[in-house]
Structure formats: C-alpha cells, structure tokens
Amino acid sequence: MTEYSNTDNNEIKKSLNFIEQEIEKDLAQGKNGSRIQTRFPPEPNGYLHIGHAKAFCLDFGVAEEYGGVCNLRFDDTNPVKEDTEYVESIMEDIQWLGYHWANVYYASDYFQQLWDFAVRLIKEGKAYVDEQTSEQIAEQKGTPTRPGVESPYRNRPVEESLELFEKMNSGEIPEGAMVLRAKIDMANPNMHFRDPIIYRIIHHPHHRTGTKWKVYPMYDFAHGQSDYFEGVTHSLCTLEFTVHRPLYDYFIDELKDGKDLDDNRPRQIEFNRLNLTYTVMSKRKLLALVKEGLVAGWDDPRMPTLCGLRRRGYTPEAIKNFISMIGYTKFEALNDISMLEAACREDLNKRATRVSAVLHPVKLVITNYPEGQVEMLEAIDNPEDENSKSHTIEFTRNLWIEREDFMENAPKKYFRMTPGQEVRLKNAYIVKCTGCVKDAEGNVTEVHCTYDPATRSGMPESARKVKGTLHWVSCDYAVQAEVRLYDRLFSVENPGEEKDKDFRELLNPDSLTVLDQCYVERYAAGFSPLDHLQFQRIGYFTPDKDSTEGHPVFNRTVSLKDTWSKINK
C-alpha cells in the first residue's frame, strides 16, 4: 500500500497515495469518530479477476494500515445472475491473497430496510411507479445537452403508486411492466438525477431470500444505503462511479431525512481501474469465453481471473507486488502485462525449486560411460536461498536432452552440442560430442558423446571451463509428463478497443500449446498443484490439478525471460 523513499538525510519518508492522504486528513479532523471502516462489495455473478484484486487490496489494505475494519459485502440485488458458487469462490480468492474480512454482509440483508425507505419516498411524493417501457424511459431522459421529458406517470397519486408497488412485489405484475422511479429533476445536467429507476421486477428465486421478493433495488439505490447501515466511513470505488457520487450522497441525505451528515457519512473516493494488455476485464466477455467453451472454465490459466492465475502458478505476493508497482491514481491507464510477468519472475526466482525437464527430447548416449551404472548427483533446490535444501538426480549412460541443444552443422558462436565441441552437463560432467544417428528421413534419433570422468562437478578438474552448460534427465529414471505452455489470451494489445472486430476473433491461436512427450526428473514428479518449480533454462512451472498418478501435468507460469515483446515488435 504505502511506498517509502530515502530523503537527503537518509531518513525513511512515507509516500502516501492520494487516497491515503484523504484518509489521514479525515482522521486528523476527527470525522466519523476518527475511525476507518471500508468494505469490498462484489456482485456474486462471476469469478474475481486481477482488476478486482486491485480494488480489494486497497479496501483491506487501508483498513489494516490505519487500524480499521474491512467487511465483505455481496451486492446480491440481481438473482438472475447470482449464485452461491460465486460467493464461495470470491471468499476463497480473497483469503488466497492473504486478506481477512471482519464481517460478511449481503445487500439482501437490507431488503426490508430498503423497501421501507422506498415506501417512505413514495409517501413523501419523491418516488412513483412508471409503466413505460425501458426504451421510452431512456428516450425521455434526454441527453447531456438536452433536458429530459417528464413521464406521464410522474404525478400519479401517491396511493396509486403505493398500491402498484405492493402488486409489483406480490407477483401480480409481470417483469418489465413497471418500475419504481425516484422523482428528482428531469432537467439536471447529471443524467443520473433524471428520475432514476430504483426498483425493478424480477421473477426469479434469490440464492438467499428465495421467492420472498419480486422487486429488487437497483445498485444506485442499494449501495450507499448499505454503506450507511454498516457504518462505512470510506467507500472506495473505481472512476466510472464518479458521476454516481452525487446520487449516492442524495439518497443517504434522504435516508436520514435531511439531517446534517457532513461529519457522519460514508465518503466515496474514486480511483483508476486495472486494465491489462492482451486480455479483457469485462465480466460479460469473460463469461462468454467460459460459456462458449473458448477457454476451459473460469480457472483456465489463460484467464485474468484469480483462480486462473493461481492455477497457472502465480503467487499472491507477485500479484500484490504488481498492484503496488502500478499504484492508485485518478487517471485511466493500460498496464503492460509484461510488468505482471516481471513481478512473477522476481517472486518465483526466490521461491521456486530448480528441477530438470526436457520438453523436446532427443536421446544422448555417452558411449564411454559404463552400461548399467547409476550415479546419484546432488542438485541444489534453490541457489537463491542460502538455506536451501538439495536433492539427488540419477545420472546414467542414456540421457534426454533438448533437441535444440544439438546442431550437426553449427555456426561459429553456437556453444551447445555439436560434433567436436565440449559442453558441461549441469551438475555432472564435461562431455564431447562425437556425432549423431539419423533415421531414413534424415531426422536425428541419437546424439553420441564421450565424457571426462575427472570433470564431475565438485572435483578438482571440474574447474576446467567450457562455454556451454546443458540440462538433462536420465532416460531410465525420468518420468514422462504433459506440459502445457500458456501464452497471452489475445493476439492484440488492447482487444477491448478493437471496435470493428468481435473480441472472439482476436483470441491468440497460440495461447496454449500442449506437449505430451516431455520428461521430468523423478523428484519433480512428486510435487503438488500450487507448488512452484523452475524448469532450468526453460521457465517457471506448477503441477496442474489434472495430474494423475504416473501422468504429471505441468503448467507454464511464465518464461524465464520476456520473449513476447521481441517477437511482436
């Protein structure tokens, strides 16, 4: 949350973002009894993505920083789209990132209070039942430069609106036939004040209240009041809600019947959303990808959902570090996904266990190595950790190496395996390539070499330098594995701005490559989903939940280096 910087006299100075500055100002003035209470209010109609993470890192973060409280409140005002599945997934994602709410609330907890408030507005002549179609209402609202036109039902008798509102909730009125609108100002320059709809009819069971209610409050009517009911002091939301803020304040003023709330009201502060290159953050579009089978579910590792990032091998620390890097401002920006990948590499470099894996294998035969001999060589789990453990890897006469690590006719600066050239096999010996074997089509089936027994790693002669070091696994002891190479979901930088194409047309056809003839060292096959591995010289990987006994599956989290920008320049 808070950044720190060195001053000229080497003291550490706290650098606050603009939201923290406003909060500290409110605390200094004693507003809301000098307390801080925030909330994270997701709608349970889908899985959280990394954009939501930016929001709740702020909500929970400032509460922690200033000794306050952050509650989780589900905005469950549209039963058609909402489900307990989403409620559970949202809770899991928040906890995975390391945050804990003080209380769990639902907008549906306040349905009776909101209904009573709506009835009071009708009785005071500040709300009415409108029977126009949604198209007619939209047309009569006017434009930012043209005032709206009053509804023909705007001045219907209070008793009539009360009776119709009751019928709307009893099930006697069909969906779409009527709405309840607040009576405010059809000429207001803020379009949200032009008699906004505050209730609509939905004949669909609610995941918590069942069929008790047939009318449901709109977001603008439910949100501010819910904040007030709970004692929220700072309502932090994204910039698109800036124009909603006056209406947010208006309803809270009406709720308290005009009493002075300047010193005791929720304060809405807006910040920029998280937009990321090569993906979309629209929940509607993400849902379409899932429903149409264009991805393998909400937790597909190509998705920007938190469960997708988790399955792919991203860590909570990497995500929070990335969010800290981009910060909170009042200006919208498109953040480069390479920044997220860099944050992930930096974190995984410190925690990932190093193992050997060969994705495109070709056999290497050490012709002067004794047949049947097995040596147990030591490999450090993580050289970045001075307290790292080590494990053993089997070394035998026949090994698998990467096919690209051999070239029969190599250019001058090729420092891998080629006839007549020496390389080191990592943690093992220096070997010298003597040639290769090919099949009838000219494909290399085996590479041959000899080894120098005096050059085993750790022996005096091992200090002899060669320019290339190759990774390998034993043909006799390695485990065959499936490896899924994930890449960016879309082929264009900002798919959301491509107006002349459907976003489905912009999907990257190479976002997933499945390799099923890979080999990993036996040690690597013993890890579980959410463990973090570095396949040496290849990238960072994690076991997938699809792994079975004898058939491990690994997802690439991120490559060792950013190669996308070079390829796509």
Automatic annotation (TrEMBL):
<feature type="binding site">
    <location>
        <begin position="273"/>
        <end position="274"/>
    </location>
    <ligand>
        <name>ATP</name>
    </ligand>
</feature>
<feature type="binding site">
    <location>
        <position position="238"/>
    </location>
    <ligand>
        <name>ATP</name>
    </ligand>
</feature>
<dbReference type="InterPro" id="IPR022861">
    <property type="entry name" value="Gln_tRNA_ligase_bac"/>
</dbReference>
<dbReference type="Pfam" id="PF00749">
    <property type="entry name" value="tRNA-synt_1c"/>
</dbReference>
<keyword id="KW-0963">Cytoplasm</keyword>
<dbReference type="InterPro" id="IPR020059">
    <property type="entry name" value="Glu/Gln-tRNA-synth_Ib_codon-bd"/>
</dbReference>
<dbReference type="InterPro" id="IPR014729">
    <property type="entry name" value="Rossmann-like_a/b/a_fold"/>
</dbReference>
<feature type="binding site">
    <location>
        <begin position="281"/>
        <end position="283"/>
    </location>
    <ligand>
        <name>ATP</name>
    </ligand>
</feature>
<dbReference type="InterPro" id="IPR049437">
    <property type="entry name" value="tRNA-synt_1c_C2"/>
</dbReference>
<dbReference type="InterPro" id="IPR011035">
    <property type="entry name" value="Ribosomal_bL25/Gln-tRNA_synth"/>
</dbReference>
<keyword id="KW-0436">Ligase</keyword>
<dbReference type="InterPro" id="IPR050132">
    <property type="entry name" value="Gln/Glu-tRNA_Ligase"/>
</dbReference>
<feature type="binding site">
    <location>
        <begin position="49"/>
        <end position="55"/>
    </location>
    <ligand>
        <name>ATP</name>
    </ligand>
</feature>
<keyword id="KW-0030">Aminoacyl-tRNA synthetase</keyword>
<feature type="short sequence motif" description="'HIGH' region">
    <location>
        <begin position="42"/>
        <end position="52"/>
    </location>
</feature>
<dbReference type="GO" id="GO:0005524">
    <property type="term" value="F:ATP binding"/>
</dbReference>
<feature type="region of interest" description="Disordered">
    <location>
        <begin position="133"/>
        <end position="154"/>
    </location>
</feature>
<feature type="domain" description="tRNA synthetases class I (E and Q) anti-codon binding">
    <location>
        <begin position="469"/>
        <end position="543"/>
    </location>
</feature>
<protein>
    <recommendedName>
        <fullName>Glutamine--tRNA ligase</fullName>
        <ecNumber>6.1.1.18</ecNumber>
    </recommendedName>
</protein>
<feature type="binding site">
    <location>
        <begin position="43"/>
        <end position="45"/>
    </location>
    <ligand>
        <name>ATP</name>
    </ligand>
</feature>
<dbReference type="Pfam" id="PF03950">
    <property type="entry name" value="tRNA-synt_1c_C"/>
</dbReference>
<comment type="subunit">
    <text>Monomer.</text>
</comment>
<keyword id="KW-0648">Protein biosynthesis</keyword>
<keyword id="KW-0067">ATP-binding</keyword>
<dbReference type="GO" id="GO:0005829">
    <property type="term" value="C:cytosol"/>
</dbReference>
<dbReference type="GO" id="GO:0006424">
    <property type="term" value="P:glutamyl-tRNA aminoacylation"/>
</dbReference>
<feature type="domain" description="Glutamyl/glutaminyl-tRNA synthetase class Ib anti-codon binding">
    <location>
        <begin position="352"/>
        <end position="452"/>
    </location>
</feature>
<dbReference type="InterPro" id="IPR020058">
    <property type="entry name" value="Glu/Gln-tRNA-synth_Ib_cat-dom"/>
</dbReference>
<feature type="binding site">
    <location>
        <position position="219"/>
    </location>
    <ligand>
        <name>L-glutamine</name>
    </ligand>
</feature>
<keyword id="KW-0547">Nucleotide-binding</keyword>
<comment type="similarity">
    <text>Belongs to the class-I aminoacyl-tRNA synthetase family.</text>
</comment>
<dbReference type="InterPro" id="IPR004514">
    <property type="entry name" value="Gln-tRNA-synth"/>
</dbReference>
<dbReference type="InterPro" id="IPR020056">
    <property type="entry name" value="Rbsml_bL25/Gln-tRNA_synth_N"/>
</dbReference>
<dbReference type="InterPro" id="IPR000924">
    <property type="entry name" value="Glu/Gln-tRNA-synth"/>
</dbReference>
<feature type="domain" description="Glutamyl/glutaminyl-tRNA synthetase class Ib catalytic">
    <location>
        <begin position="36"/>
        <end position="349"/>
    </location>
</feature>
<dbReference type="Pfam" id="PF20974">
    <property type="entry name" value="tRNA-synt_1c_C2"/>
</dbReference>
<feature type="binding site">
    <location>
        <position position="75"/>
    </location>
    <ligand>
        <name>L-glutamine</name>
    </ligand>
</feature>
<dbReference type="GO" id="GO:0006425">
    <property type="term" value="P:glutaminyl-tRNA aminoacylation"/>
</dbReference>
<dbReference type="GO" id="GO:0004819">
    <property type="term" value="F:glutamine-tRNA ligase activity"/>
</dbReference>
<feature type="short sequence motif" description="'KMSKS' region">
    <location>
        <begin position="280"/>
        <end position="284"/>
    </location>
</feature>
